[in-house]
Amino acid sequence: MNLKYILLSAFVLTFTVLQAQKTTRVNAVKADNYGVIYTLPKTSFEITLLVKKSSYKRGDFYPYAQRYLGIDNPVTEERVIHTLEGVSMVNKGIPDKNNSFMVQFQPKSFEPFVYLREDGLIVSINADPVPESTEKIVLPEGETPPVDPRRFLSQETLMAGSVAKQAELVARQIFDLRRSRTDILTGEAESMPPDGNAYKVVMDEINLQEQALTSLFVGSLQTEYFVRTYTVVPDAEDIDKMVLARFSEKLGPVEADDLAGEPLLLSLQNKTETVPLELSESDLKRLDTKLNEGLVYNIPGKAILTVEFRNNTVLNKETDVVQYGSQDVLTRKMFDNMKLPIQVFFYPELGAIKQIIQ
User: Mean pLDDT, to the nearest integer, of 185-211?
Assistant: First the structure.
């Protein structure tokens, strides 16, 4: 594994919510020389795999499925199959320890304050933060066998001396259920349901019993969904088909170095145009002074993130990447207005300016 990328993995269950990150208001006070320390983020990506787990269980009477019910393909071997149902990505900012700064206000400015997230990332200046929605994954509902089929077995079936005899009696019971349903549908049943509600109750019970008893021959299937999330923190270089993880039909998602699975390949291509600048020594000094005295913020670059599996692209998305961008500064003079203090709102995940209100 290439050490310049950080990969973490964990199981998480998620759902769609509208929420706000917990923030803290920090006032610029004389004791701190009217300065507030904040941190800018660097980009990380949370790549989430949606996995379907299908568990096949054979029925007790599967050898007799063809003989009694004409079923040619019953489950004959219990097995578990995992399928990759989808891949999604969330752009998540994490604190960059190398990019902590102090925004300093004039002593006479009007009660300046800064909102920071718990991890120190800047959210807003001189304004209450605005709650932002967070995209989460909604897990599909799985399927489970409705009931235990043995609860519907007759006393005669339970007392039968052989499995073959039991299979014959259960098959006869299934055909009786089908005949009863047909009689009700055609109005030829000796005792018809008195109204629509009773009709539904009776038909649902017949269908339930038939499905349960048939599973003793054809087998049953139980499905469930889960997700596994991998976090990737790129550096300033492109990523070319890095093995994010591997996927096995038998085992599901496995680690990148586990050859039991086939690889999921992640690529990240910088799409930001760069213009080389030739700065003199005096220009560099002025730039350094500007960065030290003003409010530094990020200007993220653009990139294309793709994930491939079995020679197919399962994720292709344009995204912002702080590591591919640059930084700029709001001068300290912008915060000197005592009557109408400037308000600045940030994209906390990017450290970029969202809105300035003067």
Answer: 91
Q: Measure CA 331 to chain center.
A: 39
pLDDT digits (tens, 9 = 90+) for 224-260: 999 999 999 999 999 999 999 999 999 999 999 999 9
**Residue at 216 is within a domain:** no
Q: DSSP letters along 64-109, please? A: GHHHHH--S----S-EEEEEEEEEEEEEEEEEEEEEEEEEE--TTS
Q: How many CB atoms lie within 10 A of CB 165?
A: 13
The verdict on residue 311 lying in a domain is yes
Rounded Cα distance between 169 and 242, Å, is 58
Q: Read off the pTM.
A: 0.82
On average, the pLDDT of the chain sits at 88
What is the extent of the structural domain holding 285?
6-55+82-142+223-236+277-357
Q: Is residue 203 part of a domain?
A: no
φ/ψ of residue 39, rounded to 5: -125, 140
Bridge partners, 245 (sequence order): 264
Amino acid making up residue 308: E
Q: What are the tens digits of pLDDT across the range 326-341? A: 999 988 788 777 677 8
Tell me the mean pLDDT in the region 53-81: 96
b/e per residue, 212-228, with b = 16+ CB within 10 A? Answer: bbbbbbbbbeebebbbb
- Spatial neighbors of 150 by CB under 8 A, at least 6 apart, are none
Instruction: Sheet with 35-57: list strands edge to edge.
Output: 6-11, 220-233, 35-57, 79-104
The amino acid sitting at 266 is L
Q: What are 14-37's pLDDT values in tens digits?
A: 444 445 568 899 988 776 777 889
Number of domains in the chain: 1
298 forms bridges with which residues in the sheet?
Answer: 327
